[in-house]
Design a protein that fits this description.
The chain is mainly alpha-helical. It is built from 16 helices and no strands. It has 2 domains: 107 residues, no CATH class; 252 residues, no CATH class. Helix 2 packs antiparallel against helix 7, helix 7 packs across helix 8 and helix 15 packs antiparallel against helix 16.
Length: 390
């Protein structure tokens, strides 16, 4: 593609700095590469990282006065995955042929959600498309940050747990049998703990492969059932009864709820329509179930805070602040503040959980290894004491 001077597409060049396409392309490409690096290694779908970059850059380019066709060409030129380039190329061609932006995006339901194209539709109809696109970019920035925080919190315990299983399996398969042979030749009476460990060692292979099989079957079961109502209902019920973890999970989805409501209400979407859109994209059964009832109540004439108060998934603090927002007619501002507060609380709570989990898992690992060593060496110490006594 020939070099494009972005400055000549800006509506007020005298008030905006002249930026060459080479510089913009270079900076945007570095940003895109950095954000996409952790996803591109594993998947080719147009995921959250790609959407964050797409909406942020498209909103920024349109705000600078660049037409939609040129903006899409600039973004398309940055992409390296053929599938992603094909999606943007199709969207661009549909817009050129006369379709609106939301109609062009709506043609890709497997890539873009109802929430996205409805938000874009509202942005076009209200003349605030660049602002809505930038807000969508911020939404995915927040979603990516939360996802990475959760992964970061879970990575350490998963790694330590895996290492614990492998270390214990190694000791049961190789170390314990060596001691067992020694004990058989000596004919020494063994403590109950040692006898138990030798019995477990004899079946360690079966136990290990049984654990691996259960993990694999669990992953397959989760993969096939994760979108079914019954599975989402009972898994959410289970996690909401785990101390500490339940509050973290609730805050993660409440932050997403508040951010989505802020985006939609800020775009002047009707409250009932906003509730319906959020219900379809929140991805958390307790809130989805509650919003079904809330939507009916609001349609019947109830105020939002009154209906939310009937569902325990929504904290009293959130309900009280929403009540204030309805009184002053500024719901998007309150939702924005709530989203910021929940995000900060999530970050703090994840840090605390991480600091507690690390020593806890080390103690568990040390306890397992220590038990094996004590059980094996205790008979040896007794044998040694007996020989010295003779």
């Amino acid at each position: 593609m020939s070099s494009i001077d972005i400055s000549k597409y800006q509506s007020k060049p005298e008030k905006k700095p002249v930026v060459s396409n080479d510089e913009t392309h270079s900076l945007a490409e570095k940003l895109s590469d950095t954000l996409s690096k952790d996803i591109a290694l594993f998947e080719k779908k147009f995921g959250q990282v790609q959407k964050e970059a797409f909406y942020s850059e498209l909103g920024l380019l349109l705000s600078s006065g660049i037409d939609i066709k040129t903006a899409l060409e600039i973004i398309e030129d940055q992409l390296k995955v053929k599938k992603h380039k094909a999606i943007l190329s199709q969207i661009k061609d549909d817009i050129i042929s006369g379709k609106s932006v939301w109609e062009a995006i709506h043609k890709h339901p497997k890539t873009f959600s109802i929430y996205e194209y409805q938000s874009i539709k509202i942005g076009e109809e209200s003349g605030k498309l660049p602002e809505v696109l930038i807000e969508l970019g911020k939404f995915y920035t927040s979603a990516i940050k939360l996802k990475r925080q959760v992964i970061s919190t879970l990575t350490y315990p998963v790694v330590v747990l895996t290492m614990s299983v492998l270390i214990v399996q190694f000791m049961l398969s190789f170390v314990v049998p060596m001691f067992s042979d020694i004990f058989k030749h000596t004919g020494t009476a063994l403590p109950a703990a040692t006898q138990l460990l030798i019995k477990i060692s004899a079946k360690s292979g079966l136990i290990f492969y049984g654990i691996v099989t259960m993990v694999v079957l669990g992953m397959i079961f989760h993969r096939t059932q994760q979108n079914k109502i019954w599975f989402r209902k009972y898994t959410s019920w289970f996690f909401l009864r785990i101390p500490v973890i339940n509050e973290l999970i609730k805050k993660i989805y409440l932050a997403r709820f508040c951010q989505s409501m802020k985006l939609l209400l800020g775009s002047k979407v009707l409250l009932i329509d906003a509730l319906d859109l959020v219900k379809n994209m929140i991805g958390y059964y307790p809130i989805e179930f509650a919003l079904d009832s809330v939507k009916r109540d609001v349609y019947a004439g109830k105020q939002l805070h009154e209906s939310l108060a009937e569902h325990t998934i929504f904290p009293k603090k959130l309900v009280s602040l929403i009540k204030v927002s309805e009184e002053v007619n500024a719901p998007e501002l309150i939702f924005e503040k709530l989203n910021q507060q929940y995000s900060e609380e999530i970050e703090h709570q994840q840090a605390v959980i991480g600091k507690v989990i690390e020593p806890l898992f080390l103690v568990v690992l040390g306890g397992l290894v220590g038990f094996i060593l004590v059980a094996m060496y205790t008979p040896l110490f007794k044998m040694s004491s007996g020989l010295e006594g003779m």
